[in-house]
Specification:
Layout: H1 6-23, E1 38-54, E2 63-77, E3 85-92, E4 99-103, H2 114-122, E5 126-130, E6 151-153, E7 156-157, H3 159-185, E8 191-197, H4 199-210, E9 217-221, H5 227-233, H6 236-244, H7 250-264, E10 292-295, E11 298-301, H8 304-315, E12 342-344, E13 350-352, H9 356-367, H10 379-397, H11 405-409, E14 413-419, H12 427-440, E15 448-453, H13 470-480, E16 487-489, E17 498-500, E18 507-509, E19 520-522
Helix pairs in contact: 3-4, 5-10, 6-8
The structure holds 2-acetamido-2-deoxy-beta-D-glucopyranose (10 copies).
Enzyme class: hydrolase
Protein name: Carboxylic ester hydrolase
Pfam family, one: Tannase
């Protein structure tokens, strides 16, 4: 072996460093070619040992990851739209797995930046996230509820930004991301994936519906389809609270949820704290009137007026207006966070803390007035608002086109799942969409599969196990033709595991430890 002098060795190491660093510079990144867009700026520099807590959309097994990547930021505009969109593309310096992954956002945002990018890069993906030109924050710790970007001025919807939010920025991100990936590695990605939950799940389905040949595999978790309807409809319990001037305390709300859990848990054949077959749980909040519960050590009694508010969340405004209403959430969902947000003083005088996620939609997109006072809205005005939002926004944001034939023809595969204890988006909306897909194409199962996740909250959370390996199962389907017969779910409360069943099959308890996946079968 030839012994190189140390200085020469470190010099060659330095040269390699310079080579890789110059590959990751604005000058060597090819300018993306995006029809209808004008590229304003490209930033690129290496980031070493960047460290963050991160996870995949719709997982609960994230962690702390340290990654080194080429950090590319592309800024573009759609001439005439007066928008300014930032797309982040993170390219692993080492160990690229040859694949691209686009990542969605949630709430009133189109991307969560580092929150999802870090994990995807740690898995070896060239990954991308877009801010859609919207002024929402980059964090997924809480659902972004700021919708002020949706108005150009009082009374005027910012249609270009709404369009970016709906679809356009997501496709832009994909096109830019794939081109930058190719430019940096000198090879196009072998496979392209998209993953998103909530608003990101809606972006995912939108890509399958409107840009069917961009992604080979799409993971859509708890998709916010029908957003123009379920969001304002989510305000219904608040409407009932204001109408009746009754604000159930958080612990009373929890007590109702617990009582329903006790009544319905066994209806799926096993007592595990999870309502796996919510359709069998026909109990109403009004059934508990007069029964006692304990709140902070004080014994109290369920009242008819509180029951009315709880039933508003469980049955949804659909029970009042079939046409301008929506489904409720299931009875093991934590309705105290979004549907019945109240706070109390020590003497049990309670009040609403405001329904940010649901109420802001009515303010900004229906009343189109940031100072609109929701608290004195009447019930007829509420249903008029429902009518208006459905009329105005279904075509741009609904994301319910059941015809996925072009996606199927392009060879795409899609996995969707929805937690049955979702506390934000009623799972029934996703179920009815999937039923429409199957109605139009009885063989849709060959390329799109939907799974119910019993006991799982919005994206994750709740007692139920979470399908943490959905992305790897999707890759196995796309790349090896192994369709997911079940979706493996893990890390439920008590380390419970389950194999989720492809709809319309459901889990049936066949005996054994309820924490064990093998104790259930699909039927
Ligand atoms: C990154 O971390 C590794 C391992 O701790 C270390 O060897 C390397 O020098 C670090 N690189 C930079 C640029 O800090
Ligand atoms: C990536 O680059 C952008 C633009 O140069 C910068 O704002 C951002 O902080 C960088 N992110 C990381 C994690 O280095
Ligand atoms: C009950 O206790 C919790 C925690 O100490 C407190 O936040 C809450 O306001 C109390 N009262 C009610 C009615 O929930
Ligand atoms: C969790 O496990 C403990 C101990 O086995 C058991 O007592 C409890 O009922 C379990 N909880 C649920 C929700 O299954
Ligand atoms: C319910 O609570 C009320 C008021 O605290 C009390 O008088 C009554 O005895 C309780 N009923 C039961 C069945 O515990
Ligand atoms: C959801 O749909 C099922 C089946 O159609 C129905 O039984 C159930 O009542 C619906 N749930 C809600 C909350 O609307
Ligand atoms: C409860 O407390 C609030 C504020 O602490 C007070 O305004 C209200 O009068 C009290 N209500 C009763 C019934 O004592
Ligand atoms: C909204 O209307 C309610 C009921 O009329 C009133 O009590 C409240 O003060 C109003 N809020 C604002 C911010 O104007
Ligand atoms: C609420 O009350 C204010 C005056 O207090 C009024 O200007 C506004 O129109 C009312 N809003 C609705 C929805 O009726
Ligand atoms: C689950 O079932 C498998 C197969 O029957 C068994 O090997 C395993 O020990 C069980 N695990 C638990 C936690 O019961």
């Amino acid at each position: 072996m030839v012994a190189f002098p140390r200085t020469l060795l470190s010099l060659s190491a330095l040269l390699i460093d310079i080579a890789s660093a110059s590959r990751c510079s604005p000058a060597s990144i090819e300018k993306p070619d995006l029809p209808g867009a004008s590229i304003l700026d490209i930033q690129a520099h290496e980031a070493h040992n960047y460290s963050a807590v991160s996870l995949g959309p719709g997982t609960n097994d994230g962690g702390h990851y340290t990654i080194s990547f080429c950090n590319v930021t592309v800024t573009h505009t759609h001439p005439g739209w007066n928008d300014r969109i930032h797309t982040q593309i993170w390219l692993p310096l080492e160990g690229w797995n040859g694949r691209f992954q686009g990542l969605g956002g949630g709430g009133y945002s189109t991307g969560f930046g580092a929150t999802y990018l870090t994990y995807a890069v740690a898995q070896g993906f060239a990954s991308a996230s877009t801010d859609g030109g919207l002024t929402t924050s980059d964090s997924s710790s809480t659902i972004p509820t700021d919708l002020s970007w949706a108005l150009s001025s009082k009374g005027n919807v910012n249609w270009p930004l709404l369009n970016n939010y709906a679809t356009k920025a997501t496709n832009d991100m994909a096109v830019i991301g794939q081109q930058i990936t190719k430019s940096y590695y000198n090879t196009a990605p072998k496979y392209s994936y998209f993953a998103g939950c909530s608003g990101g799940g809606r972006q995912a389905l939108m890509m399958a519906q409107q840009y069917p040949d961009v992604f080979d595999g799409i993971l859509a978790v708890a998709p916010a389809i029908n957003i123009q309807t379920f969001i304002p409809a989510g305000y219904w319990p608040s409407q009932v609270m204001h109408d009746t001037d009754v604000y159930p305390s958080p612990c009373e709300v929890h007590a109702f949820t617990e009582a329903a859990g006790k009544a319905c848990d066994r209806l799926d054949g096993v007592e595990d704290g999870i309502i796996s077959l919510p359709a069998r749980c026909s109990i109403k909040a009004s059934d508990f009137i007069g029964k006692n519960y304990t709140c902070n050590g004080t014994q109290r009694t369920f009242t008819p007026s509180s029951a009315k508010v709880i039933d508003a969340a469980w049955s949804g405004s659909r029970s009042i207006s079939e046409q301008y209403g929506w489904y409720g959430v299931n009875k093991d969902a934590d309705i105290s966070s979004y549907y019945i947000p109240t706070t109390c003083s020590t003497n049990f005088t309670c009040t609403s803390t405001g329904s940010d996620l649901f109420g802001t939609w009515i303010k900004y997109l229906v009343a189109q007035d940031p100072t609109f006072n929701l608290t004195n809205m009447t019930q007829p005005q509420f249903f008029h608002a429902m009518h208006s939002t459905i009329a105005a926004y279904t075509s741009i944001l609904g994301t319910t086109d059941p015809n996925l034939t072009p996606f199927k023809s392009a060879g795409g595969k899609l996995i969707a799942w929805h937690g049955l204890a979702d506390e934000v988006i009623p799972p029934n909306g996703t179920i009815s969409y999937y039923q429409e897909v199957l109605k139009g194409d009885p063989h849709a199962h060959d390329f799109i599969r939907f799974f119910e996740a019993p006991g799982v909250g919005h994206c994750y959370g709740g007692l139920g196990p979470v399908p943490n390996s959905a992305m790897s199962q999707l890759m196995d389907w796309v790349e090896n033709g192994n369709a997911p017969a079940v979706l493996h779910a893990t890390k439920g409360y008590n380390e419970t595991a389950r194999d989720l069943c492809p709809y319309p099959l459901r889990q049936v308890y066949v005996g054994g430890d309820s924490r064990n996946a093998t104790s259930f079968a699909c039927a």
